[in-house]
């Protein structure tokens, strides 16, 4: 006699995965990563949740005659920090790292 599909077991597994993902996201949100530009003249610190926490700018790159360069450095450092957040999520999230994009309805 063939056994039927156990929906309750599947639901329990989904709940366990969702809880593990929630805990991982909470832990990542507590971590910080940095992105830099201009050889460290601009440093952007982001949380593991992808929020910018701090921007540090060396006074030597603040030139009122070249605001565009400073803007470019801030953008580059921010992009670097956000890439570091993605790398952190991939490394710390393990096999659950892509789960949220695969099954958006089960992630908090």
Q: Would you mind describing this structure in some detail?
A:
This protein is an alpha+beta fold and 108 residues long. The chain has a single domain (7-102), classed as Nucleoid-associated protein YbaB-like domain (Ybab, Chain: A, 2-Layer Sandwich), CATH 3.30.1310. Helices cover 51% and strands 17% of the residues. It has helices at residues 7-30, 67-93, 99-102, and strands at 32-37, 42-47, 52-57. A three-stranded antiparallel beta sheet has the order 1-2-3. β2 and β3 (52-57) form a beta hairpin. α1 packs across α2 (67-93).
Comma- or semicolon-separated keywords:
single chain; 108 residues; alpha+beta; 3-stranded antiparallel beta sheet; 3 helices; 3 strands; rod-shaped
The fourth-level CATH homologous superfamily is Nucleoid-associated protein YbaB-like domain
Output the helix-strand order.
HEEEHH
Strand order of the largest sheet: 1-2-3
- End-to-end gap: 39 Å
> Count of helices?
3
Q: What global shape is seen?
A: rod-shaped
Largest sheet composition: 3 strands, antiparallel
What structural category characterises the helix and strand content?
alpha+beta
Radius of gyration: 20 Å
- Do you know the CATH topology? Ybab, Chain: A
In the CATH scheme, the class would be: Alpha Beta
Q: What quaternary form is this? A: single chain
Number of E strands: 3
Q: What percentage of the residues does DSSP assign to strands (E)?
A: 15-25%
On the 0 to 100 scale, the average pLDDT is 85
The percentage helix is 40-55%
Low-confidence stretches: none
- The CATH architecture assignment turns out to be 2-Layer Sandwich
Please give the domain count.
1
């Amino acid at each position: 006699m063939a056994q039927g599909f156990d929906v309750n077991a599947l639901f329990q597994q989904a709940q366990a995965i969702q809880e593990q993902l929630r805990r991982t996201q909470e832990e990542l949100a507590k971590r910080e990563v940095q992105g830099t530009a201009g050889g460290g003249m601009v440093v952007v610190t982001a949380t593991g949740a992808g929020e910018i926490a701090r921007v540090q700018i060396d006074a030597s790159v603040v030139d009122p005659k070249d605001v565009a360069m400073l803007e470019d450095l801030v953008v580059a450092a921010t992009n670097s920090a956000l890439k570091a957040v993605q790398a952190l999520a991939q490394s710390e999230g393990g096999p659950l790292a892509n789960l949220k994009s695969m099954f958006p309805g089960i992630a908090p």
